[in-house]
Amino acid sequence: MFRIPVITKNLLIINLLFFVASWVFEARGVYLSSIGGLHFFLAPDFALYQFVTYQFLHSGFTHLFFNMFALWMFGGVIENVWGPRRFLFYYLVCGIFAGLMQEGAQLVHFMLVLQDSNPFIGLMQALEVAHVYGGELNTWTTIGASGAVYSVLLAFGMLFPDNRIFIFPLPVPIKAKWFVMFYVAVEAFSAITSPGDGVAHTAHLGGMLCGFLLIRYWRRHPGNFDATVGHDFFNGMKQRFDKMKREHQAQMKVEQPQHENKDWEYNARKRANQERIDEILDKIRRSGYDSLTKEEKRELFDSTKE
């Protein structure tokens, strides 16, 4: 366990903790799958954060075991090749994309069900029906790390296509690329022929599709991940923040003397004006108001308005 790379190890631990927490809370009548599971987006309980949390919830021990076994078997290898940042990005993004694909499949299923009763039903009517049957739509919930795990299987097949692996119950090892193609074929066939079997085949295919597109993109643009998502991205963000901070501090240093200069000039003018008013008042005390000139009277009048 201590030799497993950090991201793979932590993903295994988090999934296990979520499973234990689900069991504990369920015993108290609280179902985490209703909170963190990915609901159909027209259901009342749908929330955006569920695109992440659904990946760490499982329906039972068997569901958890096979997902985590595949993650342990292949995830560590991929993480050692890519590094923790890229692997975590890949895993989560593929899981989110798998959820989006599942949402799309549920929308298609929802529209087909409605059109069975009314072939001319439109989008607005579909939204009204979804509002009325919100409680039932809340049961359309997806949980499990399968979408992300299937993307890891695909990554292994693309990075090590000729590596031979044993697959029970086959008596001989097969190349990883044929293993991945077999899984793609099985999931595609199941998605078409068994849409109501309770397995999110579309999510599995979605995770693999996202993984395929990401790997193809990274192969064609090998430096783009580091420039946009990886270590250089975070360094670039820090450098931009530091630059903005330095510019702000420099601006404050420039503005501060200007403010100080303005304050000094204002105080100097104020003192000069006060001295001038004192001279005028002294003249009044000596010779009376009528001895003032028009300019002195105006200055005295203006001073009363300040």
Notable traits:
306 residues, two-stranded antiparallel sheet, 13 helices
TL;DR?
The protein is mainly alpha-helical and 306 residues long.
Describe the structure.
- It is a single chain.
- The strands form two sheets. A two-stranded antiparallel ribbon has the order 1-2. The protein has a two-stranded antiparallel ribbon with strand order 3-4.
- The protein is elongated and about 125 Å long.
- It contains 13 helices and four strands.
- The protein is an all-alpha fold.
- The protein has helices spanning 6-27, 32-36, 50-53, 61-82, 84-117, 123-132, 134-137, 146-159, 176-193, 201-220, 224-228, 231-287, 294-305; strands spanning 38-39, 141-142, 164-165, 174-175.
- It starts with 5 loop residues before the first helix and ends with a helix.
- It is 74% helix and 3% strand.
- Helix 1 (6-27) runs antiparallel to helix 4 (61-82), helix 8 runs antiparallel to helix 9 (176-193) and helix 12 packs across helix 13.
